[in-house]
Every structure is written in structure tokens, then in C-alpha cells.
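Dear Dr. L.,

I hope this message finds you well. Following up on our conversation about the binding site, I have prepared a predicted three-dimensional model of the protein together with zinc ion. For your records, I am including the exact sequence and ligand specification that went into the calculation, followed by the C-alpha cells. Please feel free to forward this to your student if that is useful.
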Amino acid sequence: MVECIFCKIADREIPAEIVYEDEETVAFVDANPQAPTHILIIPRRHLPNPGAIQDADRAVIGRLFQIAAQIARDRAIQESGYRLVVNVGRGAGQTVEHLHVHLLGGREMTWPPG
Ligand code: AMP
Ligand code: ZN
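The resulting structure of the complex is given below.
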């Protein structure tokens, strides 16, 4: 078994502020928010990074983005804009090896990202 903090959040073994969940996905508030809205959307299945995605995962990966868009609508940040981020690998800032989409919004974003 993989020791994974996000698997434990999905299984409710450790607490998080869960804002959405279904059979295949969970969304929860980032513990160290980088914007007024900072939510992580994950598949329940442990996928370390996009390189682990199988054909059978394609629907759930699509769901992650649908859920992000729905949360952005619910929080009225769709008009002002929001950012969806997937950090892959240590050099890109990935610290948790369970695929997750960051939803960031509620402030101005700059480009390029750091
Ligand atoms: P990344 O650096 O892209 O791998 O993103 C990992 C994110 O997980 C960071 O933004 C952390 O703040 C967040 N994080 C780590 N542990 C927890 C936790 N227990 N609950 C909520 N968010 C967490
Ligand atoms: Zn995991």
C-alpha cells in the first residue's frame, strides 16, 4: 500500500475541508492557500502523475476539470478568471505524489508562473 496523504483525505482518514466528492473524485481546500480560492481536485484512484494515466482513467481526468469549472461558477470567480495548475515532478513544485488539479482564483494572476 502506498502511504499517501491525499488517499487518506479521500478515505477520510485524515481531516480536510471537503467541498465536493463523488465515487471517483474528491475536492478539498488547500491547507496552505495561495489565493482566496485554492482548492485541490483529485481522483480517488492513486495516480502519482499524468504519466500514470491509463485509458480507463480518461473519464475521471475529464471530471476533474468539470468539477473545477463548477466550483469556479459556484464561487463566482468564472468571470474574473481562475487558474488550473498541475505540477509534475519536484522541479515543477510537485510535493504530493497523487495527481491533483489546483484551482486558484479570487486574485490577479501573473504570467509566466514562477
Ligand atoms: P503540489 O505542490 O502541486 O504537489 O501541491 C500539493 C498541495 O497540497 C500544496 O498546495 C499543499 O499546500 C497541499 N497540501 C498538503 N497537505 C495537505 C493537507 N493535509 N490538506 C490540504 N492540502 C494539503
Ligand atoms: Zn494517493
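In brief: Residues 58-74 form the longest helix (17 residues).

With kind regards,
A. P.
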